[in-house]
Amino acid sequence: MTDWKRICPLTDIPVLGSRVVKSEKHGDIAIFRTSDDEVFAVHDKCPHKGGPLSQGIVHGKIVTCPLHSWKIELDTGNAVAPDVGCSKSFAARVEGGEVFLSV
Q1: Which SUPFAM superfamilies does this entry report, sorted A to Z (predicted)?
Q2: According to DSSP H, which parts of the chain are helical?
Q3: 35: left (phi > 0), else alpha (psi -120 to 50), else beta?
Q4: Domain residues for 26?
Q5: 14: closest CA among 55, 69, 68, 45?
Q6: How many domains does the chain have?
């Protein structure tokens, strides 16, 4: 069973930006908005050295970690080769202009 939680209006997340949601169970989750208004959610911690992905640069469906420039795929949380690692991804969606997150 999927438990969807309303997070905020889509307009509260800047285009090519993010918003951090606190979760007792999962820690900080970064919700990203692409230039096409798609939303993706990943654990706000780079698999390399734990950098805050929410402070990274979004390009396409990838975020570049601000610490050491690792690139993380927003839809899977996987690091882009040649780097190896993964940040947990979470289901996110936009419905009626509102962002929902499944944890």
Answers
A1: ISP domain
A2: none
A3: alpha
A4: 4-102
A5: 55
A6: 1
